[in-house]
TrEMBL record:
It is found in: Cell junction; Cytoplasm. It comes from Gallus gallus (Chicken). One of its GO terms (molecular function) is cadherin binding. Coiled coil: none annotated. Belongs to the vinculin/alpha-catenin family. Keywords: Cell adhesion, Cell junction, Cytoplasm. The gene is CTNNA3. The keyword Cytoplasm applies. This is Catenin alpha 3. Pfam families: Vinculin (PF01044). GO terms for cellular component: anchoring junction; cytoplasm.
Amino acid sequence: MSTKVPNIKLKIDPQDLQIQTFTVEKLLEPLIIQVTTLVKCPQNPSGKKKGRSKRARILLASVEEATQNLLDKGEKIAKEAVVLKEELHAALADVQKESQALKISAEAFTGDPCYLPKRQAVVQTARSLLTAVTRLLILADMVDVAYLLEHLTVFQRTFETLRNVSSKSDLQNTYQKFQKDLENLDYLAYKRQQDLKSSDQRDEIAAARATLKENSSLLHSVCSACLEHSDVASLTASKDSICSEIQNALNVISNASQGVGNKKGQPASYRATLGSALDELEHLIIQDPLVVSEEKIRPSLEKRLEAIISGAALLADSSCTRDFHRERIIAECNAIRQALQDLLSEYINNICICNFSIQDTFGFETCLHLST
């Protein structure tokens, strides 16, 4: 387990004895086996003196050895830890106390293994020791989580700096650090993902890691585009959308690594956003000319159009987009803008024609009514 840990506020309850990782489970396994074997000793042992306490002595010696190994690891972690230092020392003292209590009760038990009250006392003390060791290991696991969260905090600061860069040179320098911090965070998140017992939390971290990787290059592209075209609102909206996805992924990693549940549903990628924007425009564009109001329909259509241009701009500014494709994307965006203007003009003309026809029809019917 890691020991270089900064001061981080954790959401995990140190008093919660729920085992969340395979590592803690594996470390507890030798002690659990010995204690369980001890608990399952026959309730009515043999009355023969020869060898009647040998098995108990062997089991208790194994328990003491396993406990001492865990104490050594716990003392090393507590010595170098920065967070939960007091809790770790308290847990170590509790383990040492329970271990000493087990040793005392064990001596009485091995001297008279046929006396059931002494056997029951050993069983109870062994269970108390198991509880104390479990709490110690969970605290040690929390130290590892704090180490992960510190790297997440470092990445968060770099991410915020990248989001607010004001020049191309700052963008390049910050993005290099951003990639390095992302690599460190991804490595620790992967280790935590593999260690967690909950399959749901493993899946959540895996999805969040994929989101971070997918959006890191997109963030660089859209930040670069925003520096060149700061007056384009759609680019700013795209950057905010990407930053929101990155922030959500960080929150998922933070919560899942601590065993805290996350809300279901991941934000849509820029590809899904672009497709949705096209579908919305296509749906909105089907209008009845008789009921169309330019004051209402124009802002709605332009809003959908900006969403499409925003998604297309991400594709055009991507580092993997060839120049030929980039030029075609820009040309098609301009074509869409012009098509929308032509469409709106056609709608307005149809409204005027329809209104004129309605007025003529109404006037003709009025004349007929008056003549009769």
